[in-house]
Every structure is written in C-alpha cells, then in structure tokens.
Amino acid sequence: RSGEMAKSTQLIDNEVFRAYATYTAIVLLKMMLMSLVTAYFRITRKAFVNPEDVASFAKGESAKKFLRTDADVERVRRIHLNDLENIVPFVGIGLLYALSGPELSTALLHFRIFTGARILHTLAYLIPLPQPGRGLSWAVGYAVTASMAYKVLKTVFYP
Amino acid sequence: RSGEMAKSTQLIDNEVFRAYATYTAIVLLKMMLMSLVTAYFRITRKAFVNPEDVASFAKGESAKKFLRTDADVERVRRIHLNDLENIVPFVGIGLLYALSGPELSTALLHFRIFTGARILHTLAYLIPLPQPGRGLSWAVGYAVTASMAYKVLKTVFYP
Amino acid sequence: RSGEMAKSTQLIDNEVFRAYATYTAIVLLKMMLMSLVTAYFRITRKAFVNPEDVASFAKGESAKKFLRTDADVERVRRIHLNDLENIVPFVGIGLLYALSGPELSTALLHFRIFTGARILHTLAYLIPLPQPGRGLSWAVGYAVTASMAYKVLKTVFYP
After folding, report:
1. Which one in A67, B22, B101, B145 has a CA-CA gap of 20 to 30 Å to A73?
2. Does residue A97 belong to any structural domain of this protein?
3. More confident residue, B13 or C146
4. Burial label, C148 (beta-carbon count in 10 A; 0-12, 13-18, 19+)
5. C3 vs A12, A100, B17, CA distance in Å?
6. What's the confidence (pLDDT) of residue A13?
7. Where are the membrane-spanning stretches (chains A, B, C) (predicted)?
8. Domain of C116: which CATH number?
9. Which of B100, B151, B156, B157 to mutate to test the interface with A (most CBs of A within 10 A)?
10. Interface test with B, best of A1, A18, A76 (most B CBs within 10 A)
11. pLDDT reported for residue A6
C-alpha cells in the first residue's frame, strides 16, 4: 500500500499543487491565446512577414505590400514576449514554491494575484490603457514571483 | 521501506512521467538546436548584430557591412521564437498533465503528435514549404497542448 | 506514516532537488532582472516603443522623438531573449535530470557551472567584453544543459 501511496499522482492530491496546476494552466493558456490574436491582426491588417504566407492571394509586386509591419501586430507580439518573460519565471518558481510547503491560503493569494495581474496587463497593453495601468499590473506580477522565489530560497537553499 | 519508495526518483519510475521526460528532452533539444542554426546562418551569411562579434575580422567602415539583418537569419530567429511560444506551454502543461494520471496510451499519443508536429513545423518554416504546411503543423501542436490543458483543468481544478 | 512520507514536500527534502530549486530560482531571478535593466535603459536613454509610455511627459511631435530604438536598450533585450532561449531548457531539462537520480556532487557541478556561465554571459554581453568571452560563456551553459539531457534520455528513455 505504501507503494500505491507513493505513486506520482499523489502530487495532484495536494491542494497547493492543485492550485498551482490550475493557475499555471490558466496563465499558459492566456499566453497561448496571444498566438491567435497575432494571427487575427496579421490577417485583418494584412501584415505578414513570410513570403510563403501571402503566396496564395498575391504574387510579385502586389505580394510585397503585404510583407510589412503593422503597429497593432507589433503590439500583440510585444504582449506575447512580455508574457514569456514573466510567465516562464512564474511557472518555474511557482512549481518550486508549491513544493516548498507554503500555507494553502498564502499560496492561493500568490497564484490568484499573479493571474489577475497578467490578465490586466494584457488588457492594459491591448486597449491600450493610459500608463501607469500597464506598468502597475506588470509590477504586481513581478513582485508576486519575487515573493515566491524568496520563500523557495529561504526554504531549500542548498548552494 | 515506505520511505525508500517515497523518494523523488519514484516519479521517474512512472511510465507516463518517463514518456513525458523523453519527449520534453527531445523538443527542448530541438529548440536548442535553433541557436546553432542561427549561428551557422550568421557566419555563412556574414550577418551579425553586435559590433564585438565582427571586431576580429573587420574594422571601422568594413565592419559596418557585416552588421546587418539577413532574411535567412531572421527566418531562423522566428522559428526559435515560435518554439519558445509553443514549447514552453507544452513543457509546463505537459508536466501537470503527466501528473494528473492520464492513460499511458493517451499520454503517449499527445506527446508523440506534439513532438512530430513541432519537427514538421521547423522543417516547413526552414525549407520553406508552401502554406498551409507550416500553419497546419503549428495548429496540431497547439491543439495537443490545449487538449492536455483541458484534461489538467478537469482533473485538478482548484481556483 | 507512509502516507505522510509520500507528501509532495518530500521532493524538497531530496538534496539534489533542493540544489536544483536553489539554482533554478537564482537563474530565473537573474533573467527577471533583465526587465529592470531594460526599464532603466529605456528611461535613461529616453527610448520607448509605446505611445502611451511617453504621453505623460511629451505630446505630439515632441513625443515622436522618444519613440525610437536605442543601441543599449536593444542590447539588453537581446540578453533577455538569449536568457529565455537558454534558461528555459535548463529549467525543464534540469527538473527531469534532478528526478533521474544523479549523484549529488555531479548535479551540483552541472547547476553551479550553468549558473556561473549565464552570469558571465550577461556581464560579457552587457559590458561588452571582446569575443570569444560571450561566445564561450554561452557554449558552456549550452553544454551543461546538453549533458543533463543526455543523462535524462539515457535514464528514462520511453519513446
């Protein structure tokens, strides 16, 4: 029986880990959504980067006018890159944090604030809202990840 | 003995987790390969971005002609960024999925299709193949990750 | 009692995993630091990309002169992207490696060399040092991750 209890699925029975899994799946899906938004803007703004992407509807000189940058497309690409820069640390440090034995309520607070802040960041960037809307939402997510990293290093430090 | 079975190496005895580890290592190595392909194109096309990178073989005005963008280099860099955008969610969501207790055969199907789709995507982007070759291979990898995220959220949802 | 030992916190009692957690938190914090360095250079060089970022201190034509690229800002952004390209594989493959039962001393050697190499890479890129300083520090980190991937695939291969 001890073998059975030691199966890998045990992690998924831990409430903190389930909360981590839930919010990690949500923020990664939010990040993935940026690919679809980029595609939407590329198609509606007719702004592509690869010659093979315009070959089906334009040839020669007329193709070239669709190979261009567009302000809205570039904005969405910046959101996507900013997500990578911020969600990757959350996913990595958050996993270690979830395994470091935090209080469930504290962990939920971290995960919920981060997720809310990143959704606000995307909206503030996309609309766009006047600053410091985007800056603050970015800083809140950053501070949450730094707080988790502090807890991880305090708990496990083994340099 | 129960303590021994509970060691962290147990995860690595779980078949689904071993499959996850295998395919994650493969797709991350594939992504890392793009760094070498970028370096190869930068050197063969003589297209660099940092002044210190050309200082050993060109000075002053002649150095400037090597500080330029090149269509092939930019193409490889787009593949690399697309890998980051798609392989990061696979690695994060795939870990949670592997821990959520899926059927081994279902998990293998997800991991194999994703890995095959990303290899096809790289080839379609690099050659390049006519569309929708690249678009379809991208969409298949995206759908696999979304399917794993759905299973994770259905299994662990703890918001 | 076996149930207690099987709790998820067990991973965090494993010395190799604690070492992994320590160095992963450090390199992810180092990567996050690049966001602050980018912000610092954007503000001191007055080089922004979003119109809403300059709206508080410049209007109309005078705003346009702050919407520009700056060599130092672009350099920091390249460091940040290079971190993503290299630290993401380290975090993913390193986790699998830590779970694959390596010797503690071997694991520490991998984690310490990678972390040192990435810190050197950032310094070499930022100062910048003459090549091959940056190239070598990049290659060392790359080789460490490849070595861990080899160990993972040798241990768990389940294709």
Report:
1. B145
2. yes
3. C146
4. buried
5. 14, 18, 21
6. 84
7. 20-41
8. 1.20.120.550
9. B156
10. A18
11. 40
CA distance B152 to A120: 24
State the pLDDT at residue A10: 76
Q: Helices (H), strands (E): how many in chain A?
A: 7, 0
Name the neighbours of B, counting chains with at least 3 Cβ pairs within 8 A: A, C
Q: What is the pLDDT of residue A3?
A: 41
Length of chain C, in residues: 159
User: Other C-beta atoms within 10 Å of B77: how many?
Assistant: 18
B10 touches chain A (CB under 8 A): yes
The residue of A83, A87, A134, A156 whose CB has the most chain C CBs within 10 angstroms, and thus the best one to mutate to test that interface, is A156
Residue B129, chain A, CB below 8 Å: the answer is yes
Give me the domain span that covers residue C25. 1-43+70-157
Chain B with chain C: Cβ pairs closer than 8 A: 103
| Nearest residue in chain C measured CA to CA from A150 | C25
Mean pLDDT within C140-151: 98
The reply to whether C7 falls in a domain is yes
Does residue B9 belong to any structural domain of this protein?
yes
User: How is residue A88 written in tokens?
Assistant: 């990757």
Contact A156 C18 (CB under 8 A): yes
A86–C35 C-beta distance less than 8 A: yes
Give the distance from CA A75 to its chain's centroid. 16
Mean pLDDT of chain C: 92
Give how far Cα C15 sits from Cα of A30, C4, C101, C108, Å.
34, 19, 11, 10
CA dist., res. C54 & res. B86, Å (int): 32
Give the phi and the psi of residue B72 in degrees, each rounded to 5. Answer: -70, -40
- List for chain C the helix, strand, coil content (%; round to 5): 80, 0, 20
Own/partner contacts of C48-55, CB < 8 Å, gap of 24 or more, are C49/A78, C50/A75, C50/A78, C50/A125, C50/A128, C52/A128, C52/A129, C52/A130, C52/A131, C52/A134, C53/A131, C55/A130, C55/A131
CB A112 within 8 A of CB A144: no
The encoded tokens of residue B114 equal 């994703």
B128 backbone dihedrals φ, ψ, rounded to 5°: -90, 155
Contact A43, A93 (CB under 8 A): no
Q: Give, for B101, the enclosing helix (H) or strand (E).
A: none
State how many domains chain C has: 1
Residue C90, domain member (yes or no) = yes
